[in-house]
Design brief:
Order of helices and strands: EEHEHHE
Radius of gyration: 12 Å
Structural class: alpha+beta
Distance between the termini: 10 Å
Oligomer: single chain
Strand content: 15-25%
Bound molecules: FE2/S2 (inorganic) cluster
């Protein structure tokens, strides 16, 4: 599958991705500027991503831990998630 990233400068970058990977894993593998300071253990919000609504709608609800960290994210939106908690599926 392919992930389309809209970068901070507004440009678009497409990267390959595999089922089971998190968005944070894919970002790091392909040099997307997404920090992930805690290494994916839901203890920061530096992996904050903003998703397109159809993608957001297809995901399971965030856990309470993810919601707590999202509350600390800069620029929080209704389609914000933590990249380390979004795992790719066939869907
Ligand atoms: Fe820290 Fe995702 S990398 S919460």
């Amino acid at each position: 599958m392919t992930i389309r990233w809209k970068l901070k400068d507004g440009s678009i970058k497409e990267t390959p991705a595999t089922v089971g990977a998190s968005l944070l894993n894919v970002a790091h593998r392909h040099e997307i500027d997404l920090e992930g300071a805690c290494g994916g253990v839901t203890a920061c919000s530096t992996c904050h991503v903003i998703l397109e609504s159809p993608v957001m709608d297809a995901l399971p609800e965030p856990t309470e831990e993810e919601d707590d960290m999202l509350d600390l994210a800069f620029g929080l939106t209704p389609t914000s998630r933590l990249g380390c908690q979004v795992f790719l599926t066939e869907q």
